[in-house]
Every structure is written in structure tokens, then in C-alpha cells.
Amino acid sequence: xxxxxxxxxxxxxxxxxxxxxxxxxxxxxxxxxxxxxxxxxxxxxxxxxxxxxxxx
Length: 56
What we know:
Elements: E1 2-4, H1 13-26, E2 32-34, H2 35-41, H3 43-52
Parallel strand pairs: 1-2
Helix pairs in contact: 2-3
């Protein structure tokens, strides 16, 4: 799983597109979570995701 800041105007499409790019580059399924969307709609979820994250 990767966390990424995305443009609000792109909605969920941005994370989906980034997931495809990351999956092709890494050769495995990659889930991309938009920290922007979490910040707007699920603040506790953002805090949990950031607490569990590790730099790549």
C-alpha cells in the first residue's frame, strides 16, 4: 500500500491511476490510498494510515 497526495479535482481516479502505474513498475498489485481524500472524509483513517506508514 502506498499513500499519495492527490488533487481534489481528480477524485478517486487519481489513486486508481497511480495504483496501475505502481503495480506495473513493481510487478505486483499495489493499492494507492489518497491522503487528500482521507483528510477530507476520514480524518481518523488518515491518522491510522500515517502512523502505520514507512518511507519508501
